[in-house]
Amino acid sequence: MIMERVSENIGILGSGRVGRALAGKLASAGHAVTVGTRDPARAAASWSGARVAFGDPAEAARRAAIVVNATPGDTSVERLGALRDALKGKIVIDVSNATLRAEDGLPGSLLYPNDSVAERLQAALPETAVVKTLNTMLFTVMADPTSLGVRPTAFLSGNDESAKAVVARLLGDLGWPADWIEDLGDIATARGPEAAASLVPSVLRRRGLAPFAIALAR
């Protein structure tokens, strides 16, 4: 049975490489996408992908039923916490990693070594369903998982089962087959995928921005 594609109003908070990759692919899949950024005019002027709207973060959150957190993980709780009312009753997909900066500018040690940014977001947004996913790969793989020679894994963590089902469907629109998605359980399970960020600086120093992802062999 083929599931009917459902068009969603999606907000992307952040207009960096992660936000742009996801915005373009989701817009190409037929979703109405609004990118929330501090300088909408500047972001719009440099955009060349599928049609998306631009606005400030609060506007993007208000318009959307589903919001993707593509902001830096070390500031995500503060930024999204300020949008608590606009995010009430919605799904937040958290793809961030919370790390300190190393001296060379690359991600360094974990900001929340015994916790996770996803858990902190859920605590700050009690009336929002937070789902963690896509943080264990380079941004290019998020929207093009079949580009790798080995199939990657998209991990899911969240307390709301219906919200995770919606996110799994959106992952399908990004090119993720259902059997490449691994539901780990509640939001506390985000600690494992977030801990994988400790690998990233070593990989980047050795390989640069070559696409990579963590894969669960099974």
UniProtKB/TrEMBL annotation:
<dbReference type="InterPro" id="IPR051267">
    <property type="entry name" value="STEAP_metalloreductase"/>
</dbReference>
<dbReference type="Pfam" id="PF03807">
    <property type="entry name" value="F420_oxidored"/>
</dbReference>
<dbReference type="GO" id="GO:0016491">
    <property type="term" value="F:oxidoreductase activity"/>
</dbReference>
<feature type="domain" description="Pyrroline-5-carboxylate reductase catalytic N-terminal">
    <location>
        <begin position="10"/>
        <end position="97"/>
    </location>
</feature>
<keyword id="KW-0560">Oxidoreductase</keyword>
<protein>
    <recommendedName>
        <fullName>Pyrroline-5-carboxylate reductase catalytic N-terminal domain-containing protein</fullName>
    </recommendedName>
</protein>
<dbReference type="InterPro" id="IPR028939">
    <property type="entry name" value="P5C_Rdtase_cat_N"/>
</dbReference>
<dbReference type="InterPro" id="IPR036291">
    <property type="entry name" value="NAD(P)-bd_dom_sf"/>
</dbReference>
